[in-house]
Amino acid sequence: MAEAENLPQLWKRLGAPALVLAYPLLVYFGLRTLGPLLLGALLATAVALWLVARLRSEAPAPWRSTAAPLAPLILLVIPALLLEEQRFVLLYPVVINAVLLGVFWRSLRSGMPIVERMARLQDPDLKAAEVRYCRQITWVWCLFFVLNGSCAGYLAFWGSLETWTLYVGLLSYLAMGALFVVEFSIRKVRFRRFGDGLPDRIAHAVLKHGESEPDDANEWTQIVESGSVRGVQFIVALSTILGRPAVRGLMRLVALYYVASDSTTRDASRAFHRRLGIPSGLPAIYRNVLRFAYNASDRIFLLKRQRHLFRFERHGDELVRTLQDQGRGAVLIGAHFGSFEALRAAADDDAFPLSIVGFFDNAKKVNSVLQALDPELASQVIHVTPDSMGYMLEIRNRIKRGELVALLGDRTTPGASSVEVEFLGSPAAFPTGPFSVAAALRCPVLLVFCIGRDPNVYEVHCEHFADPLELPRRPAEEELRGAIQRYADRLEHYARLAPDNWFNFYDLWSNGA
Amino acid sequence: MDPFESEIKQLIVEALALEEIAPEDIETDAPLFVKGLGLDSIDALELAIAIDEQFGVEISAEDADSGEIFASVRSLARHVAENQEAPSDEPQDA
After folding, report:
1. Do residue A390 and residue B61 have CB atoms under 8 angstroms apart?
2. In A277-350, where does DSSP find H-type helix?
3. Which residues of A touch B41 (CB under 8 A)?
4. Is residue A389 within 8 Å of A311, Cβ to Cβ?
5. Distance (Å, rounded) from C-alpha B84 to C-alpha A93?
6. Which of B46, B49, B64 sits opposite A390 (nearest CB)?
7. A281 and A316 in contact (C-beta within 8 Å)?
8. What are the start-end ranges of the H helices in A123-191?
9. pTM for the complete prediction?
C-alpha cells in the first residue's frame, strides 16, 4: 500500500523536471519508433499522470512553479500532432531557454537577481562585492540562455534529428554543467565562503591548502590577492605552455571582459581620452585596457629573459651612457605610463644598473610569483615603506655608487604632499616627493618613458631634466611647481604619442582640489 | 658632552635649513623625527647625505630601519663615532 501511494508522490515531485530533462531522448526515440501520434499520446499521458498526482496530493505545491515547464509542452505538442509537423516538438528547448531568459532578465531589471537569491539561500548575509558578482553572473546566464536557445532553435529547423538530440540531450547539459562548475570555482576562490555541502567542503579543502586564514583587518586585500596569485600562477603556466602569441589572444578576451565589467576603469579611460580630445568610445577604451593587459603579460616573458621576443627602440640612451661612463648615478623619473619591466630589460641589455622605487607591499604574494621567474628582481626593487626612512637611504646609497634609480612622478598617495599643475588643460595634483628627493640627492635627473607598441616593440624615451635639480631647502609650493610643471608637460607630450599606454585608471584631476 | 653631538646639531640646522632653531636649542635625547623636531623622510635623506659628506660615514638602509640611529642626536653621534673610518682622538662616548 505504501509503495502504491509513493509512486504518484514521486511522480508529482520529480515528474516535471524529469520530463524536461529527458525530453530530448524521449522525443528522439519517440519519433524514431512510435511516430508523432503515439509519442504525443505518451507525452499527454505523462502530463495527465502528473496532473492527477498533483490534484490528489493533500498539500499541493504552488501551481506556477510546477505547471510552468509543462504549459509550453502542451502548447507545442498539440499543434505538432494536429499539423503532423514534428519541428514544433523540437522547439521545446528553445521555449524553455526563452522562459529562463525571461525570468533571469526580469530579476535583473527589478527585484533581486536570481543568482543572488540562490546565494542568499546558503548565507543571507552577502558583501557588496558578492552582490555585484551575483548580478554579473546572472548576466552570464542570460547570455548562456540566448546562445543555448539559438543553437537549439537552429538545429530544430535546419539540423537532423540526430544532431538536435546530441545537442539538446547532451551537449547543452554539459555546457550548462561546465558553466556551473567554472562559476562555482571562481566564486569559491574569490569569496571563500564555504557551506556544509560536499562541493563546498571539497572546494575548501583544495583552497585552504598552504594559506593562512585571513584576519579581519586586511581580509579583503588578502582574498583579492590570493585570488590574483592563482590568476598570475595560471597565466605564468599558460605563458610557458602557449607562448606569447596565444597569451596575447587570451589578453584580448581579458581586456574585453574588463571593458564589459569594470565601469570604474571604463569611465577613467574615457575621461582621459576626452581630455586628450581624441575619440573616447569603446574601441579606444578597449585598446587602452588591452595595452595594460599586454603589458602585464609581457612582464612574464621579460622576467623570464625571453628578450628575443621583443625589439627595443632606444631614444636618448646616450644620456645615460655618458653618465655611466663618468661613473655618475642618476634619478630617472617615469610615470604609470608604458612598461617599467621593459625599461628594466632595456637597461639590463645595456648593463645599466637600474632599480625601481615603488609601493609593492600590497601585492607581495603576486610579486613573489614574479620574483621566482627572475631572482634578480628583488635586488632591483626598492620598496617604499611609509613608516621608516631606510628606503630613502637605499636610494641615496645606490646613486652614490653610480647606479640609476627610477621613481614614478605621477601618482599622489593620500597624506603625501602634492601640488597642482596644468595637465591636459586642467589643474591636476602631482606628488612633490619624487622631485624633493631628486633635489636632495643633487644628482642628474632624467625623464624616462617606455612605450609599448604592437606587436612587440618597446620604445624607450630618455631625456634630460636637470643636473642637478636646483630647489631651495624646504621649497615653497611655487618653487616646486615649476619643476613639476615641466615634468607634467613632458608626460603630456608622451601621453599624446601613445594614449593607450596611459595606465592611471582613476580621475587624476579630482585629487588636488 | 660628545663633540660629535654639537657638530651634528650644527649640521642638522644647516643641512635642513631650520632657520628658527639654534643648534643649542636641540635636545641631545629628544626624538628628531615625527615628534620632537618633526623631521620627515626627505630630511632624513638630507641629514644622511650631510653626515656622509662631513664625517665620511654612510648610513645603510638596514641601519636606518633596524637601529635607533635616527632616534636622537645622541644616537646619531654614537653611530658616527663607531663608524668613522679614521677614528679621531676624541672620546667615543659621552
Report:
1. yes
2. 282-303, 317-325, 340-349
3. 389, 392
4. no
5. 86
6. B64
7. no
8. 128-158, 161-166, 172-191
9. 0.64
- Virtual torsion, Cα A481, A482, A485, A486, nearest 10 deg: -150
Burial of A6 per CB tally in 10 Å (0-12, 13-18, 19+): exposed
Is 80 exceeded by the pLDDT of residue A301? yes
DSSP letter for each residue of A33-82: IIHHHHHHHHHHHHHHHHHHHHHH-SSPPPHHHHHTTTHHHHHHHHHHHH
Interface test with A, best of B65, B66, B70 (most A CBs within 10 A): B65
In chain B, residues with a C-beta closer than 8 Å to the C-beta of A442 are: 49
For the purposes of burial, counting CB atoms within 10 Å of the CB of A15, is it exposed (0-12), middle (13-18) or buried (19 or more)? buried
Cell of A446: 632624467
Question: Residue A344: which of A380, A306, A315, A309 has the closest Cα?
Answer: A380
* Cα distance between residue A242 and residue A259, in whole Å: 24
Q: What phi, psi does A313 have (nearest 5°)?
A: -105, 120
Per the listing, cell 637600474 goes with A354
Sign of the alpha-carbon dihedral angle for B78, B79, B81, B82 = positive
- Look up residue A16 and give its three cell numbers: 516535471
CA–chain centroid gap for A341, Å, is 21
C-alpha cell at A403: 647606479
Q: What mean pLDDT is predicted for residues A175-199?
A: 78
Question: What is each CA distance from A208 to A181, A187, A202, in whole angstroms?
Answer: 18, 14, 10
Q: Higher pLDDT residue, A7 or A29?
A: A29
Query: Going by C-beta distance under 8 Å and a sequence separation of 6 or more, which residues neighbour residue A228?
Result: A363, A366
Q: Which helix (H) or strand (E) holds A376?
A: none
Partners of residue A406 on adjacent β-strands: A332, A356
Q: Which region, left, alpha or beta, applies to residue A163 given φ > 0 means left and ψ of -120 to 50 means alpha?
A: alpha
DSSP assignment of A203-265 equals HHHHHSTT-PPPPSTTHHHHHHHHHHHHHHHHHHHHHHHH-HHHHHHHHHHHHHHHHHH-HHH
| Interface predicted TM-score (ipTM) of this complex, two decimals | 0.84
Task: Express each pLDDT in A244-290 by its tens digit.
Answer: 988 898 888 888 888 888 888 899 999 999 999 999 999 999 999 99
Q: CA of B86 to nearest chain A CA: how many angstroms apart?
A: 21
Establish whether the linkage from the previous residue to A60 is cis, with ω within 30° of 0.
no
Q: In what order do the strands lie in the sheet with A457-466?
A: A311-315, A457-466, A445-453, A330-334, A404-408, A354-358, A381-383
How far is Cα A409 from Cα A431, in angstroms, rounded to an integer?
Answer: 7
